[in-house]
Specification:
It is built from 15 helices and eight strands. By secondary structure, the protein is an alpha/beta fold. It is elongated.
Length: about 325
């Protein structure tokens, strides 16, 4: 198939590369001319601007937008929609808020333009491992785009097949699903990322407990100087807590067990917040996911005002002093 790729960052460029490996034709555009030129040397057709990209594609045109969520994606989709024709297709493969998908799909449908939202997981490894995709849109259009999704997906690989899946959609085994109507793809990806926050926080807290078993605050006989790199490695081999996140953890600890190159300042990309908002709307309790999001907020501060209040209250009711606190002598 022939497809336009807008946004040649870490994922957009590799999506184009994986498609070209499987003989799809990619017309590419990015605000960086260097990024365009690099993909041109690898076989892509470069476009000097968005109107030129639209002209380089044949109806029904397929344009995949791979940009950060928010204004830049909104403006780009609005701009290309003005140049497209009936039956053309816009795919948003970024991390867009699913309610924005629903709104956009309705506006584009009035113009006869098809809209598909693709929650895309795989990061910088996707070019070789493939991308796990959660897709929202009409069944007819998703089926039409299947050659693209099949190329980008990991494929069945060496993972053991799940028993009793007869009658279920085989695409899930290949690494992609049609989740439902417009917005459903990004909704599923949003919750996926919320779960990811919780899993990451569980590993982080567990390894912190392991590391601090050597604390001088513990009785000497109960102190263990544990090798975190070895623990993470052995857990990868047959443990019930094995995962790709643990694989990445083991790689980081093998390189530097002290993780000296990291500050511990942890950003959140939005999906965690949206997952909590959805849970509130649905009245679904999500204690772990909420705590993991708040832990990321906490990582960006040395100490919060709330923690100062805790110290003040503890000193007030029990005379408890903060660690390192020097009492002020009272006058006689």
């Amino acid at each position: 198939m022939k497809i336009g790729i807008i946004g040649l960052g870490r994922m957009g460029a590799n999506i184009a590369r994986r498609l070209m490996r499987d003989k799809h034709t990619c017309v590419v555009f990015d605000k960086s001319s260097d990024a365009i030129q690099l993909l041109e040397t690898e076989g892509a057709i470069g476009a000097v601007d968005l109107p030129a990209m639209v002209k380089a594609l044949q109806p029904p045109r397929i344009l995949w937008v791979m940009l950060p969520s928010g204004k830049i994606t909104e403006d780009t989709i609005e701009q290309i929609a003005g140049a497209l024709e009936k039956d053309d297709i816009i795919i948003d493969g970024g991390n867009t808020f699913y309610k924005d998908d629903i709104r956009r799909a309705g506006a584009l449908k009035a113009k006869g333009i098809n809209y598909v939202d693709v929650g895309t997981s795989g990061g910088v490894w996707g070019i070789d491992r493939g991308y796990c995709m959660m897709i929202g849109g009409s069944a007819e259009i998703v089926a039409y785009l299947d050659p693209i999704f099949k190329t980008l997906a990991p494929g069945i690989g060496t993972i053991d097949r799940t028993p009793d899946r007869d009658g279920h959609d085989r695409r899930a085994e290949l690494g992609y699903i049609h989740a439902g109507p417009c917005g459903a793809g990004h909704f599923v990806k949003m919750v996926h990322n919320g779960i990811e926050y919780g899993l990451m926080q569980a590993y982080a807290e567990g390894f912190d407990v392991l590391r601090n078993k050597a604390s001088s605050e513990l009785p000497e006989a109960e102190r263990f100087d544990l090798n975190l790199a070895d623990i993470s490695e052995v857990w990868r081999r047959g443990s019930v807590v094995s995962s790709w996140l643990l694989d990445l953890t083991a790689a980081a600890l093998a390189k530097d067990e002290q993780l000296a190159g990291f500050t511990g300042f942890v950003e959140d990309s939005g999906e965690g917040r949206w997952t909590i908002e959805a849970a509130i709307e649905e009245a679904v309790p999500v204690e772990v996911l909420t705590a993991s999001l708040f832990a990321r907020f906490r990582s960006r501060r040395d100490h919060t005002f709330g923690e100062k209040m805790l110290s003040a209250m503890r000193q007030g009711f029990g005379g408890h002093l903060e660690q390192g606190h020097i009492p002020v002598k009272k006058d006689n």
